[in-house]
Amino acid sequence: MDEMAGMRRLSGLTAPPTLCPRRVTDSGFTLIETMVTVVVCSILLVIAVPSFIYVTNSNRLTGEVNGLLGDLQFARAEAIKEGVNVTACVSTNGTNCAGATTWQSGWIVFSVPTNTVLRVQNPFTSTDTFLASNGVSAITFNREGYAVGIANGTLISLHDITNNSAWTRCLSVSFIGQLVTERYGNITNGVQCL
Length: 194
Hints:
- A hairpin with a 5-residue loop joins strand 5 (about 140) and strand 6.
- The chain has helices at about 1-10, 30-80, and strands at about 85-90, 105-110, 115-120, 130, 140, 145-150, 155-160, 170-175, 180-185, 185-190, 190.
- By secondary structure, it is of the alpha+beta class.
- It has one domain: minor pseudopilin epsh fold (3-Layer(bab) Sandwich).
- The strands form 3 sheets. It has a 5-stranded antiparallel beta sheet with strand order 3-2-1-5-6, covered by helices on one side. A 4-stranded antiparallel beta sheet has the order 4-7-8-9, with helices on one face.
């Protein structure tokens, strides 16, 4: 019986680890895994790149039109606060008005009686065009905040190099001093943003 019990005990024993065959595993990626990863990345790029271009163009144009809007609002506020005329005009050198309607060349804001330059905007680094309708090269606000010497609904239109309507922005200036930014096709003060 003791032999039987000993056999039973021996049958439950396992071989030492050195005697077990080890399975060799390869590390790395299979060709299928690599191809799936490349396909997924390609699909993501196809979706992301156009969205990225849209976001960068939209942000650049919005920043440019808001730069002029902010400076015109500043000029109007200074005119009301100081009780004198304040002008924003196209300027290529940052000191004098250029007499041009190409606002992408830069502009200055100055107090009319003292000719003190209050703000300077450098020319755009992009190829965008910022052109004013009605031949407007300067906008002057009087002490009541009215824009003097311009037609109602004067537009300053911003276009990117592709001249695509999706990227067109307009800044509408009314003779009462109202400043409104618009997208292509919208109408403000009876004038359509084109």
